[in-house]
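Pipeline run #58 for the internal structure catalog. This entry was flagged by the ingest filter as a single-chain record with no existing model, so it goes straight to prediction. Upstream metadata was stripped on purpose; only the residue string is passed forward. Reviewer on rotation: M.T. Logging verbosity set to normal.
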Amino acid sequence: MAQTATKEAVLPAEVIDRAQLSRMTFGDRNLERELLELFDRQSEMLIARIRAGAAVKPLAHTLKGSASGIGAGDVACAAEAAERADGEDCSAAIDRLALAVEQARALIAELLRQS
């Protein structure tokens, strides 16, 4: 239960920079929705593949680029850390990335419900 409260506290717009998203979509709300839906599906799939033992570096790199495009800075930073991590640090970096993705996906779900 405490974990849920933490997630709710982090879910404000800082998780996704709405201004960045608007710039990337030229203010087109339909395109914004499409990009958020795409990121939601892609991030879920990439995290699942990383957790299943697929090569972390290329998947984290892909996730970093996608996250940067929609203004998900925490995800992009965590993905970069996972991309650079080795050994035991890699597991912690993956956990941090998975949490950042979870937070971004929670906000995306809320944004999509509102639109």
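catalog note: Residues 2-114 form a domain with the Four Helix Bundle (Hemerythrin (Met), subunit A) fold (CATH 1.20.120).
catalog note: The two ends are 28 Å apart (CA to CA).
status: ready for reviewer M.T.
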